[in-house]
Amino acid sequence: MSIGTTPTIPYATPVKPEGPGKIVTVLQAGARVAALAIVFIAFGIVVGRPFFSAGNVENILMQSAVFTMAGLGMTMVIITAGIDLAAGSTIALSMVVTSMILDAGGDRTNYLTTHPVLWTTAAVIGGTLAATIVGLCQGLLITGLNLVPFIVTLGGMQAIRGLTKGVADNQEISPPSNWLADHLMYPVQGLHFSWQIAPIGVWATLVAALLAGGLLRYTKLGRHIYAVGSNEATARLCGVSVKRTKIIVYAVAGLFAGLAGVLEFSKLNLGQPTGAESYELYVIAACVIGGTSLMGGVGTITGTVVGALIIGTLNAGAQQAGWPKWVQEVAIGCIIIAAVALDQLRARVRA
Amino acid sequence: MSTIDLAPPNPQTMPPQSAGGDREPLLSMRGVQKRFGSTYALKGVDLDLYPGEVVALIGENGAGKSTLMKVLSGAHTADSGTMTLDGARYQPRNPLRARRAGVAMIYQELSIAPHLSVMENILLGVEPGTGPMIGWSKMRERAKRALAEVGRDDIDPAAIAGKLGIAEQQLVEIARSVALGARVLVLDEPTSSLTRGDIENLFAMLRRLRSQGLGIVYISHFLEEVRAIADRFVVLRDGASVGRGVPSEVTDEQIIRMMVGRDVEDLYPRHVHVTGELVLQLQDLAGSKKPRSASLELHRGEVLGIAGLVGAGRTEMLRAIFGLDRVRSGKVKVALVEGNSSPRKRWNQGVGLLSEDRKTEGLALGLSIGDNITLSQLKGLGPLGLVLPRNQDRATEPWIKRLSIKCRSPRQPAGALSGGNQQKIAIGRLLHHGVDVLLLDEPTRGVDIGAKAQIYALIDELARGDEKAGRLSSAVLVVSSYLPELMGICDRIAVMSRGVLGAPRPVAEWNEQLLMAEAIGQEAASF
Fold first, then answer.
1. Which 424-483 residues of chain B touch chain A by CB within 8 A?
2. B338 and B448 within one domain
């Protein structure tokens, strides 16, 4: 059928999008970056000059990369008013699958030496695909059985962890030397400053973040993700396929968790079935500190990236300041609560 | 004697209101002002409420009714002016204190704990008992007494509140106020989600409470209701009380003039509609529960109204057509496409639905105006199927102008606007999508008179089409519980009664009595 009305007012006279909206967004992003700077400088003062060294900055970026990568998918999930508690287990699954494929290309077959690029790619795809599939399954369960995401992913957290241990036969897998371990997350800063600043894995995370941010901001799927989280009934009314959107989001969350698993594996060249324990909490924390609302409909990738950097800085700083683990945990807990409280305060001041 | 003063009031010269005779007013407001930043929400409100009377507070959306309620309930503090309750200074610091002082509010959105029982709801926060223990027998007894006072001792105090109907839930809330010893009851649009029968019951209860000496402030858009229940009325406009009187002594036109501050000469614009091709056909359509049977034919250039009681199955019919609810049997045919469909396909076929429930379904209030208007149609907003925010703004702006949506920018969240403007956003979505068949469910619910007139004009314009601009006429199906509106804008009207849709007849063959009689159906015959 043909289209009905057309606007009678020509496009030539736009109402200028007024300042407040934009300024507030900039301020909010600014406030988070400022918080990051404060945390960074504060630890710098406590720890001393070495904290500001290129090597330490690289260390922080590498620590944050894993949380950021998994946080990209988590942000989308949380924007739909969902949650993925299985992120940590999914990261571990990806670690184990990646390391097993690499290991299979070791002495017996020698694929890793004869076809290094192909085999390494296969390992990355294998780990990521396994994670994507478990994410997809969670999405299918949530929409198919009409269950709360919390419950499905709580079950998923246990089930995927068990699966990972089963696949790995409860063994840590340490594959022979490979490109991932040697380059992806291997520090580039040594005695001399390197303009690469950080290893490829960190840059890859940045690219992934740009892609995820673009997806949320500039694609129909992205708009649908916000719409579903903001008001599911409205989304349905407007012809948005709510189920499809959610299934895609959980699969994408699996994908990013899988990539995070590849990064985590590459740090130590080790596939630990018990690794990435409770990472989901750090990842969720990164999103929340970044301003993503657990009620859905609100959140940005930039926020999550800054959130992950804050957590990375905190972890690195606390370690180097010689704080015991428990103090670190208390500090992170307080920061999560303070960040959300401040966010609400800001929202109230604005209203 | 009717006192209608159209000039802005002056607290010094305002004559005391006479309805109470020599009695002291129960509640009295004088020159109450409230400012947010530099804008006055209340510019000077005078209101007297005597025991045993119902005063209607009428005014357009944005006239300051909700701010006035908030000042009364202690949610806001007035900047200046005085309020007295029983002759003593009344300045509640928060809603709890207002309730304790005897001033209770019943908001449109009921505050019921749906998982708790009726008695727990009635005595929430003031549960009887010793120490930490609840005295259940005492609780039941007090709840029963409160229910009896509002005339509904048939409701089981142990029933789960969430399982009751809206009318009963509202009653539970009123019983809660009564149990707390309220002397002033303020109701905000209490009938907005009630059926005709429930409204009768509500009015009977209000009269009962009035006879017990309560003072009742009744906020409403509906002049019919004001006439049915109120002893006096006060008109609020732009934050000031601009007129008052006794409903029986003034005409609707006079009241409307006070509300809008000008003449609304033609609320229902009518032009000749030329009926075109058949675009929607229903044959014996039945949903999972309702409707049981609906048949109709809708053509381009036609406005077809569906009258009926709330709960008759009108909304369900629209939802079934649109694919939001299951179709059990019967046929739906949109233009040449026959069969059931999903909302997405319906949009593609050129059908759009305006939800009756703007807040929880019609709009995503947290998202921007632009997001809401373009949500169903994100195509063409950027290359490669991307959605560029700048293009979204550009696509939205013409509709903001055309529908005169009052906002700062297309990026403002929809939830920040008033009801009327929100409704225009929801309508803007249908226009942006360019649908040919508009399914409008209560298009003017909670919308002020000015916006109403605009919506009526828009419907007329859509049905007329525009040959010069090459725009075909649209087909409009309107569900409304407001009969004057249906009589005013429709070409034909059909009545849905208990899930069965009657035959549509030209509007000239109907009047409000006939519509009501058919809506009530069998019940009318048994009276």
1. 429, 431, 434-436, 462, 469, 471-472, 474
2. yes
> What is the tens place of the pLDDT at every residue in B161-212?
888 888 899 999 999 999 888 999 999 888 877 878 888 999 999 999 999 9
Interchain contact, B367 vs A238, CB within 8 Å = no
Helices A87-104 & A242-268 angle (0-180, nearest 10): 50
Environment class of B513 (CB within 10 Å of its CB; exposed 0-12, middle 13-18, buried 19+): exposed
- Domain span holding position B145: 112-181
**Closest residue to A11, CB basis, from B349, B362, B394:** B394
pTM score, whole prediction? 0.74
Please give the Cα distance from A204 to A216 (Å, whole number): 18
Residues B84 and B213 in one domain: yes
The CA angle B154-B158-B162, to the nearest 5 degrees, is: 90
Residue to substitute from A219, A226, A231, interface B, most B β-carbons within 10 A: A231
Instruction: Give the span between the Cα atoms of A75 and A288, in whole angstroms.
Output: 9
**Chain A residue with minimal CA distance to B413?**
A21
What is the topology classification, in CATH, of domain A50-184+194-350?
Answer: ABC transporter involved in vitamin B12 uptake, BtuC (1.10.3470)
> Is there a contact between A238 and B397 if contact means CB atoms under 8 Å apart?
no
* Residue A21 clears pLDDT 60, i.e. is over it: no
CA distance B182 to B197: 26
Q: Are B324 and B416 part of one and the same domain?
A: no
Nearest to B219 by CA among B207, B209, B234: B234
| Residues 291 through 350 of chain A touching chain B, CB cutoff 8 Å | 297-298
Residue B359 lies in a domain: no
Size of interface A-B (CB pairs under 8 A): 144
8 Å CB contact of B367 and A227: yes
Q: Which chain A positions have a beta carbon within 8 Å of B363's beta carbon?
A: 231, 234
Q: Is residue B3 part of a domain?
A: no
Among candidate residues B237, B262, B287, the one where a domain is terminated: B262
Per-10-residue mean pLDDT, chain B, length 527: 40 42 83 81 91 90 81 90 92 86 87 85 82 84 92 90 88 90 91 82 93 92 86 90 91 81 68 89 92 94 91 92 92 88 92 92 93 92 88 93 88 87 94 94 84 90 85 92 88 93 93 83 44
Residues B168 and B216 in one domain: no
Distance from CA of B114 to the nearest CA of A (A): 20
Tens digit of each residue's pLDDT (9 = 90 or more) over A59-72: 999 999 999 999 99
Q: Distance from B391 to chain A by nearest Cα, in Å?
A: 11
Is residue B140 a contact partner of residue B220, using CB atoms and an 8 Å limit? no
CATH code of the domain covering residue B218:
3.40.50.300
In a shared domain, residues B422 and B381: yes
Report ipTM (2 d.p.): 0.73
Q: Would you tell me the crossing angle of helices A149-167 and A116-144 to the nearest 10 degrees?
A: 140
Shortest Cα distance, chain A CAs vs residue B14, angstroms: 36
Domain end, chosen from B210, B240, B262, is at: B262
Instruction: Say whether A15 and B397 touch across the interface (CB within 8 A).
Output: yes
Residues B222 and B258 in one domain: yes
- In this structure, the answer to whether residues B176 and B61 fall within a common structural domain is no
B115 close contact with A: CB closer than 8 A: no
CB contact under 8 A, B366 and A18: no
Q: What is the mean pLDDT of chain A?
A: 88
Verify that B168 and B215 share a domain, yes or no: no
Residue B526 lies in a domain: yes
What total of structural domains would you count in chain B? Answer: 4
